[in-house]
Amino acid sequence: MLRYLNVLSVMALVGPAIYAYSIKYETMRYSAEIVKIQHSIERENDRIVMLRAEWAYLTRPGRVQALADRHLDMQAVAVDQVVKASDLPDRAARVDVIGRKLELLGLADPPTGTIEKKATGGTPAAGRGGR
């Protein structure tokens, strides 16, 4: 009987030790995985920085102007071509073509014929970024 009690007590000590070691190694595995993911994130951030620098290099105004001069047949802007926004005419009213066709067919109530604009605050630049 004493021998069974000794074997049982050894098993009671070895079982939690095995469990503790399994948790330890699982934690080490997860730690290594986290380090790999962090390195992957750093590589991706480096790539993003490199791509942004390349984009800035490719979209330099001098380079774009040289490419436009070489490949596009454009003329320089003359001083008399530049006007103020207040000198531009108002937009023409947009016509609701489908509504007019339905009206002609007698399938809809008579609309006003134009699409109503939303309130833009009274300035032509409002609604377009305020510029």
Mean pLDDT, nearest integer? 83
Oligomer: single chain
Low-confidence stretches: 118-131
H/E element sequence: HHH
- What is the count of helical runs? 3
Taking Cα atoms only, what radius of gyration do you get, to the nearest Å? 37 Å
Quantity of strands, as a count: 0
- Which class of secondary structure composition applies to the elements? mainly alpha
Helix fraction by DSSP (H/I, runs of at least 4): 55-70%
Main sheet attributes: strand count, strand direction, barrel closure? none
Shape: elongated
Give the DSSP E fraction (strand runs of 2 or more residues): under 5%
Could you tell me how far the N terminus lies from the C terminus, measured between alpha carbons in angstroms? Answer: 94 Å
If you had to describe this structure to a student in words, what would you say it looks like?
The protein has a domain at 2-71. Helix content is 59%, strand content 0%. The protein contains 3 helices and no strands. 0% of the residues are buried. The model is unreliable at 118-131 (pLDDT under 50).
